[in-house]
Design brief:
Length: 499
C-alpha cells in the first residue's frame, strides 16, 4: 500500500477509534493535517520497511517534511504525551509480523479446518497419568452441535482433567482430541468466577475483549508516535505500516460491534442499563457468575466447558442458570454433582469410572436407569461367561491327555479365548457407607482417618480413595464444598456416626 493510501486510511474519523474523548479531540485536530499531507505527497511512494522512496520532480521532501512537521507540532502541543515518547517506546509498538504475514495467517486459520468431526470435539482413546498414577485409561466420547454433555464420575475420576485436555491446558499421554476446526474457540467457566471487583460492570464485560482492547490502545499509541515522527519519513512509513496492520486486526475482530454486543447481552443476563456504572464488587457472587458467563458468551465460543458452575450459587440463581444455558445453542460439556441441574440440561451423560468412559444418551435420570440396566445386563453376561469358563475347565480336566488330547486342546483354546479376547468384565458396583461428623470439639476441628474405604451420600460417591484423611472444621467447609451442594452440610454438621 502506498504512502498516500495509508494516509487516507488513517482517516481518523473511522469508528474503530471511537470511545475516547481525548482521542476524539486529537483526531479532529490531526485530520486536516494528515489529509493535507496525503494530498501533497501524492506522487511519493514509501514501501513498507524497505525504505524505497520515489519522488516526483515537483516534490521536495525536505520542504514537505518541514511543512508537515510544523502542522503536526501544533497538534503535539495539544497532546504533550506525544513529546514524551522515547525511541524505545516507539520501537516497542512494532509487531513482529508484517501485514502480509497477518493476512496469510488469517487465510491459513480459516482454511485449515479439515477434520474427521463436523462439529464440536471428539476424544479418542485418551489416557493420562500423573506421577505414575493412571487417571484416564481409555476415554472416548464426543460432543456435537446441539448437545449438552454431562460429565459424571466419583471424586478424582478425572472429569476436570478431561476438560483441561479439551481446552488445551493439558496434553494427553496418548489418544487424540479431534476438533472440528483447529482454531476452535473453547471457553471455560469454572466455579471460581473470574471477575475484577474494582471494575464497573461495563468495564468487566469489555475486558472479555482483551485482545481487541489491546489493539485499540496500541492504535492510540501509534497515532501519538505518528504525531512525533514527522521529522523522520522512514519512521513515519513504518508507523503507517503498523497502523495498517492494526486496522486489519481491528476489522478481523469487528471492534465496532463490541459495545452493541454488550448492550444487547446485559438485559439478557438480568442487568439494567444503570448497572453499567456500578462496581462489580457491589454484586453478589450469583451476579458475578452472570458476568463471568456473559464475558464468555460475548466471545461467541464454539464450545463451552462448565466445571461445577452451580457451586456457591443460591437456588434462584441455579434455576436462572439452568434456564439461560438451556436457551444457548453452543455445544457444552458440564461437570456437576447437582443431579437436578444435569437433569434439566443434559442430552447425553458421559461417565468416567476407573479411567474408562461410557456414554449414555439422555439426561441424568435416564442415565441412572440406563446404567442400572447396563449393570444388570453386564452382570448376567459375566455370570453366563463364568459358568462357561467353569464348564470348559471341567471339560479339559475330564478329557485329559491320551485319545482325547485333540478335543482337550481345542477346549483349551476356547478357554484361552474366553479368558482373554472375549472376557466379559464383572461390572463394578460401589459399596457405600455414610459418615456424619461430630459436633465441633474445643479445638474447633477434628480429623477423621479412613482406611480402605469408599463412602458417599445417597447415590453420589464422594471418595473412592483408600487411606484418606479428612480434616474438617465446622466453619471451614471449603474442602467439602468442592463436591457437595449446600443441603448436605446440615447433615454433615449434625453429628458423627460411623456406619
Ligand atoms: N496436575 C496434576 N498433578 C498431579 N495430579 C493431578 C493433577 N491434576 C489432577 N491430578 C489428580 O488426578 C485425579 C483426577 O483429578 P480431576 O480433578 O480430574 O478429578 P475430578 O473427577 O474432576 O474430581 P472432582 O470431582 O473432585 O473435581 C486426582 O486424583 C487429582 O489429584
Amino acid at each position: 500500500m502506498d504512502f498516500t493510501t495509508k494516509l487516507h486510511r488513517l482517516d481518523l474519523g473511522s469508528s474503530f477509534l471511537s470511545g475516547s474523548v481525548v482521542l476524539d479531540a486529537r483526531k479532529a485536530a490531526l485530520r486536516p493535517c494528515l489529509r493535507a499531507a496525503s494530498n501533497r505527497i501524492a506522487t511519493q511512494t514509501i514501501r513498507g520497511n524497505t525504505n524505497i522512496i520515489k519522488t516526483s520532480k515537483f516534490f521536495d521532501p525536505e520542504k514537505e517534511k518541514s511543512k508537515i512537521a510544523a502542522r503536526l507540532s501544533a497538534v503535539a502541543v495539544e497532546t504533550p504525551v506525544a513529546e514524551t515518547m522515547t525511541k524505545e517506546d516507539i520501537e516497542s509498538l512494532f509487531s513482529n509480523s508484517s501485514v502480509h504475514e497477518f493476512d496469510n495467517k488469517r487465510v491459513n486459520k480459516q482454511t485449515n479446518g479439515a477434520s474427521s468431526v463436523s462439529s464440536g470435539v471428539k476424544l479418542e482413546n485418551v489416557s493420562k497419568s500423573y506421577k505414575g498414577a493412571t487417571v484416564l485409561k481409555d476415554v472416548s466420547w464426543e460432543v456435537k452441535k446441539g448437545e449438552k454433555v454431562g460429565l459424571v464420575g466419583v471424586n478424582g475420576a478425572g472429569k476436570t482433567t478431561q476438560l483441561r485436555i479439551i481446552a488445551g491446558h493439558e496434553e494427553p499421554d496418548s489418544g487424540n482430541v479431534i476438533k472440528a476446526k483447529p482454531n476452535m474457540k473453547i471457553s471455560f467457566l469454572s466455579q471460581e468466577f473470574e471477575v475484577c471487583l474494582s471494575r464497573t460492570v461495563r468495564e468487566e464485560f469489555m475486558s472479555a475483549f482483551k485482545d481487541e482492547m489491546e489493539i485499540s490502545t496500541k492504535m492510540e499509541k501509534v497515532q501519538k508516535a505518528l504525531e512525533s515522527s514527522i521529522n523522520d519519513l522512514e519512521l513515519m512509513g513504518r508507523l503507517l505500516d503498523e497502523f495498517d496492520l492494526l486496522q486489519r486486526r481491528a476489522q478481523a475482530v469487528d471492534l465496532d460491534q463490541l459495545d452493541a454486543k454488550i448492550s444487547k447481552l446485559m438485559p439478557e443476563l438480568g442487568f439494567s442499563p444503570e448497572d453499567s456504572h456500578r462496581l462489580v464488587a457491589s454484586f453478589s457472587s450469583g451476579w458475578q457468575m452472570r458476568m463471568s458467563l456473559g464475558k464468555i458468551l460475548l466471545q461467541d465460543p464454539d464450545l463451552l466447558l462448565l466445571d461445577e458452575p452451580t457451586n456457591h450459587l443460591d437456588l434462584d440463581t441455579i434455576e436462572w442458570l439452568e434456564g439461560y444455558l438451556k436457551k444457548q445453542e453452543v455445544p457444552m460439556v458440564i461437570i456437576s454433582h447437582d443431579r437436578a441441574f444435569l437433569d434439566q440440561l443434559c442430552t447425553k451423560i458421559v461417565e468416567t469410572d476407573m479411567g474408562v468412559s461410557r456414554t449414555f444418551e439422555g439426561n441424568y435420570s435416564q442415565y441412572v436407569v440406563s446404567k442400572d440396566a447396563w449393570i444388570e445386563a453386564q452382570y448376567a453376561a459375566w455370570e453366563k461367561q463364568q459358568k462357561e469358563i467353569e464348564h470348559t475347565k471341567d471339560l479339559i480336566s475330564r478329557l485329559g491327555a491320551g485319545a482325547n488330547s485333540g478335543r482337550a486342546s481345542s477346549a483349551e483354546k476356547k478357554l484361552e479365548k474366553l479368558q482373554e479376547e472375549d472376557l466379559v468384565e464383572k461390572p463394578f458396583q460401589r459399596k457405600q457407607i455414610k459418615i456424619r461428623f461430630p459436633e465441633r470439639g474445643r479445638s474447633g476441628r477434628f480429623v477423621v482417618a479412613i482406611k480402605n474405604l469408599e463412602f458417599g451420600f445417597e447415590d453420589k460417591m464422594l471418595f473412592n480413595r483408600a487411606n484418606l484423611t479428612i480434616e474438617k472444621g465446622r466453619e471451614n467447609c471449603h474442602y467439602w464444598s468442592k463436591w457437595m451442594r449446600k443441603e448436605y452440610f446440615a447433615e454433615i454438621d449434625n453429628g458423627f456416626r460411623k456406619a
